[in-house]
Amino acid sequence: MIYLQISTAQGPAECQMFARFALQKILREAEAAGVEAEILEETPSKHGILSAVLKLSGSRAESLAAGWQGTLQWVCPSPLRPQHPRKNWYIGVFRLPEIPALPESEGIEFQTCRAGGKGGQHVNKTESAVRAVHFASGIAVRAEGERSQHANKKRALELLAFKLAEHHQTALRQHAADAHKSLYQVERGNPRRVFKGEGFREQG
Q: What residue stretches are annotated with the Prokaryotic-type class I peptide chain release factors domain (predicted)?
């Protein structure tokens, strides 16, 4: 699994246009290469995007990512500000640290307890409610909507999986925030890929 962050590093609107183009081109290249690409985070703007985080997976994901990591340059007079003297626009594509997959079944403690609230005499008098605790993250959930302990255990696992997914996303956003700090050190003199004109033609 590979995580890539595309960012304008708070660049102007032209950089935001460029970032949107780069995101779309990465997605097209991924599809052509048989690489599964998923947008995990995207921050849109009026003229494009401020940043995005992509998850890439597949046998060719590594080579695809390697072809994009670094500084990207767009050489073009501003389509938005015709009198603007600047013609070179830069964005960064950075690889984020991979977050280890959280276990789905191991390291979970199940506790049974008496369900409360509505549900009838059977629900209230039996220990049908289930509390599931994931030790590694400290996340705990409780399921008591079903009559049987088995059904509530299954529901607790579903809730825990959802919470763990949220936990994963939070950690990924933190990695993206940490990586963002390095975007101000972009090597403008050594771009990874260069595109020209309003049609974003790539320079070979």
A: 114-130
